[in-house]
Specification:
single chain, alpha+beta, 494 residues, 4-stranded antiparallel beta sheet, 10-stranded mixed beta sheet, 16 strands
């Protein structure tokens, strides 16, 4: 007994797994059958609608056109050969054939037939297939019904619908009196033949493929549109919105961020010496290079304000206060290096006074999020700590970086800086100790000094970490010649 119970315990999970497996295997078949039933029902509705339309037109024509002509035969005549007789109009059967031809030409997947097993003596008999012969038998037994047939091939669904051609008063009078009619004892209500509508439709898989192509086109349009929208948003903000992590509502939160602010020294005076097209090209190239560096270090680009840039670290993504501050300082140093390279390029292009950029960095609490109205908002930061970054930038020498003590304390392991005279600022109660960045430290703690000086007659940017041995020797020789030149200028009589 115990053995049997243990066997049943082992067998039940196996049976359950087997049943689940069968259900999963049968799911595609069930879906296919549902799709097929939907397709068949849709095709039958189309066939019914078309059959009803043609029948209504024929009945109206027989009662309101043909019957009136027959009542006044001296004015015109009714004939299946109407096209060759001036003033003649077609009989109802010919009208149905003509309508069917027009419909079939306009709708390639629809075929219309108007056939009978009682053809006139001078006309070729209709070639009826098994479905049509069966339909005639059924419809003569019960003229009030419709006969349908559904068939499938590998690529298509097909529905055929047969409706009775019922003899009306005008038809009976005409057929019984016509010398070529094969039957002269027709009665009103007799079924003379069938009106058949056949509709072929591609299999559901093809329709689904078509829908998929439409969806792909729509997705391509949306992807293109979202790519265009992304140009107006910082990638981190764009990602958080389109992934559903962040709602587009007016909402802010208080966070500790590291804020970067830069400004081009004497930008207004520089623009006055250049054509608008040239300054536009330079400014766009400058912003493109700076943005690439900011994104590489993980900064969130807040905005461009004229020639100034506002970038912050710590939202919507953060690696921690210390790492955010270090990343921001590294970004600022890389930006100054890139600006030096751009200035060399621009001088070679004939630009006399390229950009000289001041940078400020501060770490502190700010309100960050969506500010504005319900229909127009901006993702940005506000607060005195953000304003402090701009103030630090304003006291920096061109080509240099000034940071707050808070940023220096977090990033002191990777940089060399010296304290500057204390400053005060409206909105901040504490005394601010700025620090001027002199250089960086590598992983081993070795000094990586960067020298940058820009003044009338001098444009110097020296990054010793970017030089190899031969380049160092060449620069040493250049600097020695520069010193000798200064000595000669000093010794020369005034």
């Amino acid at each position: 007994m115990e053995i049997r119970k243990r066997q049943e315990k082992h067998i039940r999970p196996i049976v359950l797994i087997g049943l689940v497996g069968l259900l999963l295997l049968g799911l595609p078949l069930a879906v296919w059958l549902d799709l097929r039933n939907l397709t068949d029902a849709a095709l039958q509705r189309q066939a019914n609608d078309l059959n009803s339309l043609v029948t209504s037109v024929r009945n109206f024509y027989a009662s309101n056109v043909v019957a009136r002509v027959l009542a006044a035969p001296e004015k015109t005549q009714v004939s299946h050969m109407y096209a060759t007789i001036p003033g003649a109009i077609p009989i109802p059967a010919t009208l149905s054939l003509e309508l069917g031809r027009v419909i079939s030409e306009q709708q390639r997947n629809i075929t219309y037939r108007f056939v009978s097993d009682f053809p006139f003596k001078n006309r070729a008999p209709h070639d009826l297939d098994a479905f049509e012969r069966t339909a005639l038998v059924k419809l003569r037994a019960d003229p009030k019904t419709l006969v349908t047939d559904v068939s499938d091939t590998l690529f298509t669904h097909r529905v055929r619908l047969a409706a009775p051609i019922v003899m009306g008063a005008a038809c009976v009078a005409c057929h019984n009196a016509h010398p070529e009619s094969p039957k002269h004892d027709w009665k009103i209500g007799d079924v003379r033949g069938i009106q058949e509508v056949s509709i072929v439709q591609p299999r559901q898989a093809r329709q689904i493929n078509g829908m998929n192509r439409d969806l792909e086109s729509a997705n391509e349009f949306l992807a293109s549109l979202s790519m265009k929208i992304s140009r107006y948003l910082s990638p981190q903000i764009y990602k958080s919105i389109f992934s559903g992590q962040r709602d587009v509502v007016i909402q802010t939160e208080r966070k500790k961020l590291t804020i970067f602010f830069s400004d081009i020294k004497d930008f207004t005076a520089t623009t006055e010496r250049m054509q608008p097209e040239q300054i536009t090209l330079l400014l766009n190239e400058y912003f493109t290079e700076m943005s690439t560096i900011a994104l590489r270090h993980g900064g969130t680009i807040d905005k461009f304000v004229g020639d100034a840039m506002l970038i912050f670290f710590g939202d919507p993504e953060t690696k921690g206060e210390r790492e955010d501050a270090i990343a921001c300082v590294r970004m600022a140093v890389d930006m100054q290096r890139a600006i030096a390279r751009l200035n060399v390029k621009w001088r070679n292009q004939g630009v006399e006074n390229p950009f000289r950029v001041r940078m400020g960095v501060n770490t502190g609490f700010c309100n960050v999020g969506n500010f504005g109205s319900t229909d127009r908002m901006d993702y940005t930061i506000i607060g005195a700590e953000a304003n402090l970054a701009a103030r630090l930038q304003s006291i920096a020498e061109p080509g240099h970086i000034v940071i707050s003590y808070e940023t220096f304390a977090l990033a002191r392991s990777i940089l060399i800086a010296h304290a500057m005279p204390a400053i005060t600022m409206k909105g901040i109660n504490r005394e601010i100790i700025p620090y001027a960045v002199e250089g960086m430290l590598d992983a081993s703690g070795r000094r990586m000094e960067v020298l940058s000086e820009h003044m009338s007659g001098l444009d110097l940017y020296l990054d010793t970490t970017a030089l190899n041995e031969s380049e160092s020797a060449r620069i040493r020789a250049v600097l020695e010649r520069a010193l000798a030149s200064l000595d000669r200028a000093k010794a020369a009589p005034a």
